[in-house]
Amino acid sequence: METKGKTKLLLIDDDPDFVEAYKRYLAGFFDVQSALDGDSGLRMISERRPEAVLLDLRMPRVSGVEVLETMQKRPDLRAIPVIVLTGQHLDEKTRRELGAMANVCQALEKSAPPAQVCTEAERAALLGELYRETPELRLAVAPGGGKHLSAA
Question: Can you say how many angstroms the Cα of residue 43 is from the centroid of all Cα atoms in its chain?
Fold first, then answer.
């Protein structure tokens, strides 16, 4: 499939069936790459610099939370927008905690309709492109925390 000119999206999830299904769905809109664990995901984020990341929270070895914490600590990664897409139930307290992280722009459960995930990925990717093109905006938002888009 032609990926030239498409927005780069990285999907990090330890469920290979979920990853393949979402890659097929999102491939019409994005240049989708994937990683099946948090450690590989962090390497790919560093190497590929995607416009946005779809991230599962519960993964073996390096969890999604650890990926988020590492991204927050690294100035070169902290402004990359992340959509948390997880199989666990997200109560309001968890959504608020995730929304308080500078790079989390949305938190969704895996049961969310794929069209909603695609829409949120498009919004996050646009934000990522804006940050890349406007470094002073990225620097103004990323270091201090806060949320980009609603986390509800």
Answer: 14
pLDDT tens digits for 36-87?
Answer: 999 999 999 999 999 999 999 889 889 888 998 899 888 888 888 999 888 7
Q: What is the pTM of this model?
A: 0.81
Q: Decide the pairing of beta strands 82-86 and 7-12.
A: unpaired
What's the pLDDT tens digit per position in 3-33?
567 889 999 999 999 999 999 999 988 999 9
Tokens describing residue 59: 């993964």
**N- to C-terminal Cα separation, the chain:** 34
CA–CA separation, 25 and 114 (whole Å): 8
Both tokens of 124, joined, read 């996050």
Q: Is the distance from CB of 105 to CB of 124 less than 8 angstroms? A: yes
CATH code assigned to 7-141? 3.40.50.2300
Distance between alpha carbon 96 and the CA centroid of its chain, in Å? 17
